[in-house]
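Input record (one chain):
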Amino acid sequence: MDFNKARTFIEVVDAGSVTKAANKLFRTQQAISLQLKALEDELGLILFDRHGPKILLTRQGEQLYEEFNSAFLQMESSVYHLKSDKTSASGTIRLGLWMEQSTGYLPYIVTAFKEKFPKVKFEILLGIDADLEKALLNNEIDFGFYVYVKNNKLIDTQPVLRRKLILVASNAYLLKLKRIRAIKDTLELDLVDYSHDYASYTVWIKENARELFAEAKKKNPVVTVKNDLVLKELVREGHGMALLPEEIVKDELSTGAMIQLLPKKSKAVTLTIDIGYKKRRSQSYIHDQFLQFIISKNNLWM
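The corresponding structure, as predicted from the sequence alone:
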């Protein structure tokens, strides 16, 4: 077996196209294509469905990729462990996460990890759970940070981050209304919430006044959006109440621009964020180290 052909095959699959792989390997597209054809001839297998520029693997191609990739990653990991020199370990870690995590959680983990592995690079993809789950399964990212994963047959998850959501409204908005004395009174307020899949107000009601749940489910938000930062701005501008992470409204709470509703009569909602990764995909040394690092730090965020 010519291991150069095997490495080229892996690079083409990871890159998603012959053109991108050729650029990364500093070779011509023709040379890459000839190597792939030679590999198929040598093995007597058809590895690709050739319909347009996008790389589509046959079932035999998928199986060979898993075998080849696993073997190369094991060799790479062994070399790094033997050298035991973290400062020389390199690679790119592709992360997918929500916008909110990119402004709070992400800067810390990137900074702390690069202190241990300074040559590592990061690529960040922003999206919501459905987008990030698809990206992980398509090998476009190495790890995703999820509120909820649907395909738990192919994706493993570990909890790494908890966020405390509290019900808030702007002081200016509340001054126009009667005083909020009980949980039932919140049913009369305008609601700004996540879209249906992530609606948080009904969760808060269920946690604090289950008898009001049926009535709360009928309440339609005046605005829905899948982004904490946008929700915060809508609340600040007086469009209604919302469940928001306590850490992103602490300044507004301290100045009185926002008010937490019924803090002594209700419990906050806790949102758990998981890190997700493909179950059957072999990890490189640096990816394995990153996963261990994230899990080891969850005591700071849980």
